[in-house]
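Pilot study result, target chain (82 residues):
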Amino acid sequence: MIEGESLNNEAAKRYITNSLKREYASENGTELNAILPKMSPLNPQYLTKKQSVFQKIAAFVEKFKGVGGRCRGNECRSFSVH
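Predicted structure:
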């Protein structure tokens, strides 16, 4: 998904990992915007891309939340997004 959507690799891994810890993906804040490919928010395709990426990540998180052990603080031992 990260390569297929041309997402910012490190930011996307961090966003997905944080979403799995929370057990939901969030559109709030700047995390989602940071993972998107570089394009102007004025570009008509920007909002479409943002929604598409969010829906894919939300579905991924919904499918895999709770899998891979418990997280303590900032550390997830049994699950890694690589």
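One observation from the pilot: DSSP finds three helices and two strands in the chain. A full batch analysis is planned for the follow-on phase.
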